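Quick note —
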Amino acid sequence: MIGIDLVKTDRMKNMMEKFGEKALLRFLSPKESLLVKNHKTAAGFWAAKEACSKALGVGIGSECGFFDIVISKTQKGAPQITFSEKVQKNFNIKDSSLSITHDGDYAIAVVAIERF
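Predicted structure written out below.
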């Protein structure tokens, strides 16, 4: 399954200016928020979680919430995703891949999920 999402980075900039750190904690864990360098990074993380839920075919909601998807970085700095035990089990996830890119005023994320 594949999911993709596009976010205008100014949307995240406005949210962060209005709500500060609380803006990030609406969709990121405290550990994930430490990886955010600026509003563009945050927009990429938002896009990644949305793309992931789309790859699962459910969107963000009761079956898969923002905190069921965990973003981290490899030793070389590449983004990666893992899932809560609930999502891992309910969707039979075998493997996943994440790519995030930024161009001008946009952040784009693509997620591929392999199921058993």
